[in-house]
Amino acid sequence: MALSKDRLIGRKAILLLLSEDPDMQLNQLKENNWKGCIGKVGSMDAHKVVAAIETAAKKNGIIESTIYRESHALYHAIMEALHGVTRGQVQLGSVLRTVGLSFAVLRGNPYDKEQEGDWIAVSLYGTIGAPVKGSEHETIGLGINHI
């Protein structure tokens, strides 16, 4: 069970997120039978960040909303990415922090063997800080989970 170097799902999720031409990146991923989407969310509520990412993943056919394990895998990938953004304490408004984030969700098989199945990655990049313009700094997070 070896990771394929040209299919590192976390790396690809981050590159998609930071790409100057995400549509081209998404088209290349689709050629390899991967699914992905990008979006933006800003909030003082972590549950709104989770909801925005879940909604985008469902609308873009990355996960099937009627299959629990797919929603569950996405949820854990989102939470892992939020841990990176919030430095381990997934709290926003309750501690007077707000985020403005771009996100990418990517689904595919990063392994040489097809039998390994799909994995899902969520990457987040943007700002976090006090809810006062100019009181924020950059942040990034990545979460990966098997489906």
From TrEMBL:
It holds the Pfam family HutP. Keywords: Activator, Histidine metabolism, RNA-binding, Transcription, Transcription regulation. Gene3D superfamilies: Hut operon regulatory protein HutP. InterPro entries: Regulatory_HutP, Regulatory_HutP_bacillales, Regulatory_HutP_sf. It comes from the Bacteria. Antiterminator that binds to cis-acting regulatory sequences on the mRNA in the presence of histidine, thereby suppressing transcription termination and activating the hut operon for histidine utilization. Belongs to the HutP family. Homohexamer. This is Hut operon positive regulatory protein. The lineage of its organism: Bacteria, Bacillati, Bacillota, Bacilli, Bacillales.
